[in-house]
Every structure is written in C-alpha cells, then in structure tokens.
C-alpha cells in the first residue's frame, strides 16, 4: 500500500515549514516501513504568479485524488488584487473538497506550561479541541459585495450544516471527557439562534454528553482565565477562526497550533492554523512545530501510521520541553536547527 500525498507549500513561511516536514516524513517512512508518493503543487500566491489563479485545476484535481493533503500557508503583501487573492484559493479548496469540519487542538503538557504567557497554574491541564465549521457562515454567504460607499456580507446557516458539525463535535466529546461547549452570539444573531436550537436538538442523541452554551465574547474571556475547563468546543466559521488564534497563545505561540480538516468521505487536509507570516519569511525563523504536529495528525488520521505519529509527537514535545525552540517560544534556534534536532531525536 502506497499513500498518495499532495503537498501545497504556498507562500511566505509555508515552503520553509513544509519542505522540512517532508524530509521528516521521508525519514519516518523508512523507520516505520511505509510507502508514499508525493506530488507538490502551486497554490495561493505562487499559483497566481505561475498560473494566474490561486487554485489551478491541476492542483485541485491532484488534491481530489490524494489520500491526504499537507498545506503550508498562503498569502502575503505581494498579492493585493481583491478579485484574485491567495486566500480565495484556500476558501476554494475547502469548499470544493467539502472540508466542513476543522479540528484545532490546544494542549499544554506539564513540561511546556512555563512557555505560556498566562500564569502556569491557570493553564496547567489544558487539553481541548476546537471544532470549527469551515464551509459555511459569513465566509461563503451570498449576497456579498462592496463598493466605496457600502458593503454587504451574509451570515447564513442551514439546519443541515449545523447538524453535521454538531455530530462531529458530539462524537469527539463522547470519546473524550464528554463535555461540549457550543459558542454563539445567540443574544444578537439570527444564525446563532438557529445554531443553539440545533445543538440542543442534536444533544438529545447524546445523553451522556454534558452540553453548555457560551456567548462568544464570554468564551474569549474564559479561554484566558480558565482554559482547562474546556473539553470540546464547537462553533461557527468566523468565531472559530478568531478563537483558535486566541487559543494558540495558551501553549505559547501561534506557531505551535496544528489543524485537520475533513469532509464526509474525501481526502483530509492538514495545515498549521497560522498564516504565511510575511514579517519573518525567508529568514529561517519560522516555528515549524505547528506544521509538524499537523503531519502528526495526518499520520494518525489519514495514513493510520499510529506509531510514526506517536514518535514524531513525542519528539516535538521533548524538544519544546528542552527549550530547543524558535524565537517565538523564547528559544535561540532557527527553523533549520529544529528540523535537524527532530531528525536526530527520531
Ligand atoms: P500570520 O499567522 O501569518 O502571522 C501573525 C503573527 O504570528 C506574525 O507576527 C507572524 O510572524 C507570527 N507567526 C505566524 N506563524 C508563525 C510561525 N510558524 N513561527 C513564528 N511566528 C509565526 O497572520 P497575518 O500576518 O495576519 O497574515 C499573513 C498572511 O497570511 C495574510 O495574507 C493572511 O491572509 C494569510 N493567512 C493564511 C492562512 C493560511 O494559509 N492557512 C492563515 C492565516 C492567515
Ligand atoms: C485560517 C485563515 C483563513 C481563514 C484565511 C487565510 C482565509 O485565517 O485558516 O485560519 O480565515 O479561515
Ligand atoms: Mn485564521
């Protein structure tokens, strides 16, 4: 069995963190005896430069035929045409592949809690998964337009869209600590009134899961003051985008947070949650751990290479504990040093 993987390095720090991670994948495949084929495709700004569009058909078709997709990051100050932006490629691939569920874990281990900007005793024991709805809401709602005088975005959700993401979150909670927090803005938004109603309806199918509801502003506060209270959080697209960047600060850096996105039955896509970090691109400064932990999720969920996943994950946490980290985590090392350490420790 040989897995088909599509690599989309993208822009900015994307190629730096993804190419190094592919060398780690190669080492893992010989250590743990599995085979894969890899195809690299243009995506995002680089694809605009080379093909005139951020998501060329060749890239999308390759992704559709893959077992898994690894993505670095897209975007940057170079691409400013509002009608042809790298980020449209990202939204396009999510929509085309039906990647409605985005899993964004936040974990603080006992050996890494000192890296948090929040007091150690507050973050100790934090281990939650944010389930972000990824193909609906204000990102995709129509009509949508703007001109110099007026702008419109539409925030729509259907019962079906909320039900399917709710089931993903309830299923996860059932396998974990059976605690689900649904986040909305039910005191103001119509879409949130439906969201809360549907979450409560689906909750009837999961009597063993304790459900509570938080308004998004209060959730933002609870994430900082008491992050260890959460087990699984489920929320809509835009709230999930914002809260997951906030959550990434709890273990110490946006550069640490991985993600996995999946559809009903197609290939899954794995990417760190951060962007292309143009301010540090091409300087060997990027933290590659978010990308490497996304590779861990890929090995575990798509390739079913559990031992390789566990090994890489333990190496990443060991390096963080030993303070072999990049500057964003107060370390003294470059991206390339981190990849060397990972190879040695594997
Ligand atoms: P960003 O996530 O790229 O960067 C925010 C800050 O965090 C920057 O100071 C950056 O240096 C730092 N940072 C991010 N990742 C890091 C890492 N791995 N190591 C060390 N530091 C890291 O967000 P931004 O600056 O608002 O956006 C830059 C571009 O990225 C924009 O074009 C945006 O649209 C795009 N973006 C893409 C994705 C994606 O491809 N999935 C996600 C978010 C933003
Ligand atoms: C993310 C990013 C994207 C999003 C942007 C680049 C479109 O911020 O993956 O979190 O908003 O979903
Ligand atoms: Mn984001």
Overview of this structure, please?
The structure is a single chain. The two termini are 23 Å apart. This protein is an alpha/beta fold and 346 residues long. Helix 1 (14-31) links the parallel strand 1 (2-10) and strand 2. It has 2 domains: 1-105 and 269-346, Isopropylmalate Dehydrogenase (3-Layer(aba) Sandwich); 127-249, 3-Layer(aba) Sandwich (Rossmann fold), CATH 3.40.50. The strands form 2 sheets. Strands 2-1-3-12-11-4-5-10-8-9 form a 10-stranded mixed sheet, sandwiched between helices. Strands 6-7 form a two-stranded antiparallel ribbon. It is built from 12 helices and 12 strands. Helix 10 packs antiparallel against helix 11 (306-321) and helix 11 crosses helix 12 (335-345). The structure holds nicotinamide-adenine-dinucleotide, 3-isopropylmalic acid and manganese (II) ion (MN). Nicotinamide-adenine-dinucleotide binds at residues 13, 73-76, 87, 90, 254-255, 271, 274-280, 286-287, 290, 328.
Topology overview:
Elements (H helix, E strand, L loop, with lengths): L1 E9 L3 H18 L3 E6 L4 H7 L5 H8 L3 E6 L12 H11 L4 E7 L12 H4 L3 E7 L11 E2 L4 E2 L6 H17 L3 E6 L5 H14 L6 E6 H10 L6 E4 L1 H12 L11 E3 L5 E3 L18 H13 L4 H16 L13 H11 L1
Parallel strand pairs: 1-2, 1-3, 3-12, 5-10, 8-9, 8-10
Antiparallel strand pairs: 4-5, 4-11, 6-7, 11-12
Helix pairs in contact: 1-10, 1-12, 6-7, 8-9, 10-11, 11-12
This protein binds nicotinamide-adenine-dinucleotide, 3-isopropylmalic acid (IPM) and manganese (II) ion.
The site of nicotinamide-adenine-dinucleotide has 21 residues, from α4.
């Amino acid at each position: 069995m040989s897995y088909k993987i599509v690599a989309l390095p993208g822009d900015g720090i994307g190629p730096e963190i993804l190419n190094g991670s592919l060398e780690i994948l190669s080492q893992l495949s010989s250590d743990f005896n599995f085979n894969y084929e890899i195809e690299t495709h243009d995506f995002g700004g680089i694809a605009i430069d080379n093909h005139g569009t951020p998501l060329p058909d060749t890239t999308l078709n390759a992704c559709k035929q893959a077992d898994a997709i690894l993505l670095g990051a897209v975007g940057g100050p170079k691409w400013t045409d509002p009608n042809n932006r790298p980020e449209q490629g990202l939204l396009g691939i999510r929509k085309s592949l039906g990647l409605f569920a985005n899993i964004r874990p936040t974990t603080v281990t006992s050996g890494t809690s000192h890296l948090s900007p929040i007091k150690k005793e507050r973050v100790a024991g934090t281990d939650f998964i944010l389930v972000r709805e990824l193909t609906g809401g204000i990102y995709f709602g129509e009509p949508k337009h703007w001109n110099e005088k007026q702008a419109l975005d539409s925030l729509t959700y259907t019962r079906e869209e909320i039900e399917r993401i709710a089931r993903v979150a309830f299923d996860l909670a059932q396998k974990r600590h059976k605690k689900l927090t649904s986040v909305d803005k039910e005191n103001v938004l119509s879409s949130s009134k439906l969201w809360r109603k549907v979450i409560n309806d689906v909750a009837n199918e999961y009597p063993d899961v304790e459900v509570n509801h938080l308004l998004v502003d209060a959730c933002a506060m609870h994430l900082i003051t008491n992050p260890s209270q959460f087990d699984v959080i489920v929320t809509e697209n835009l709230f999930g985008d914002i809260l997951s960047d906030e959550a990434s600060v709890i273990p110490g850096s946006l550069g640490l947070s991985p993600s996995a996105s999946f559809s009903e039955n197609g290939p899954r896509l794995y990417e760190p949650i951060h962007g292309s970090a143009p301010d540090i691109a091409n300087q060997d400064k990027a933290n590659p751990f978010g990308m490497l932990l996304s590779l861990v999720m890929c090995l575990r969920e798509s390739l079913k290479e559990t031992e390789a996943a566990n090994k890489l994950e333990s190496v990443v946490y060991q390096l963080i504990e030993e303070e072999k980290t990049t500057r964003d985590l107060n370390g003294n090392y470059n991206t390339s040093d981190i990849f060397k350490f990972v190879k040695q420790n594997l």
